[in-house]
Design brief:
The protein is 29% helix and 21% strand. It is α/β, with parallel strands linked by helices and 265 residues long.
């Protein structure tokens, strides 16, 4: 962090963030019910300013969700980022819960033959809409052609015969694809933040970009309680974050401090 604070012309390698969705979440100091046009123009300013500090070969990973009654919010935000100069390189679907039935299980899957449901979500009471159990992670770059490190977050082949079948395959590891299952743990107590961003999701984004250098810097303009920072600490990468809520800043400093102590033991 010292190196970051001393450099006024520092360029950012990766931005990973999850801004408020403007859907009425109960934040301490932020109003999550802005006029829609004001909200979109605000994120347009964020896009413009971030573009100016991001390296040409940098990545911006934007997590944003929608409501059943207003499903177009994420795509309206995407248009604002495109207008600011970004290219949409990948659209990632963050799945919070999934159910797979027996007839849809592959014959070679050794884990379960009866089907299963995994993940956690709060069902909605509507008789018109399905419960929304996914969000978007939009991967923006400046060129749209940035090479990424797909195998750094790859998964093993289920059918091992594919490892020898394809000439391009050199290891038992394949592209994860653009559908990522990352679950929330079930929480029985009051949340410290109304919209927690999972550390694992941030970590997958950073690794996908290929952020392996100790000179790399990750920025989260909506740091919240520090999920992106904790992910960076696990990866040994420098980070910087901004947050308007001093309570969240205090909480983030505490969890970051605890992780430093644990890591240094």
């Amino acid at each position: 962090m010292d190196r970051i604070s001393k450099s006024s012309d520092l360029k950012i390698d990766v931005i990973v963030t999850s801004p408020p969705y403007n859907i009425g979440k109960k934040y301490n100091v932020y109003n999550d019910r802005m006029d829609e046009l004001d909200y979109l123009n605000w994120l347009y300013e964020i896009a413009q300013k971030s573009y100016s500090i991001l390296k040409f070969n940098g990545s911006f990973f934007l997590n944003i969700g929608e409501t059943s009654t207003d499903p177009l919010i994420p795509f309206q935000v995407v248009n604002k980022f495109l207008n600011a100069g970004y290219k949409l390189q990948n659209t990632i679907h963050w799945i919070k819960s999934i159910s797979i039935e027996k007839e849809d299980m592959a014959n070679t899957n050794p884990l379960c033959s009866e089907g299963f449901s995994i993940g956690h979500y709060k069902p909605i009471r509507s008789n018109r809409f399905l419960t929304n159990i996914h969000e978007y992670v939009f991967h923006f770059t400046k060129s749209g052609y940035l090479p990424i490190d797909k195998l750094s977050i790859g998964v093993p082949y289920q059918d091992k015969s594919n490892v020898k079948r394809w000439k391009s395959v050199v290891q038992d590891r394949k592209d994860r694809g653009n559908v990522w299952f990352v679950s929330y743990p079930t929480i029985q107590r009051e949340r410290s933040h109304p919209a927690i961003f999972p550390e694992k999701l941030a970590k997958l984004c950073i690794k996908l970009h290929g952020c392996n250098s100790k000179d790399s810097v990750v920025y989260d303009p909506f740091m919240g309680i520090g999920s992106t920072a904790l992910a960076c600490m696990d990866l040994g990468i420098d980070f910087i974050g901004t947050e308007i809520d001093l309570n969240y800043v205090k909480y983030a400093k505490e969890v970051i401090g605890k992780k430093k102590i644990f890591t240094n033991k």
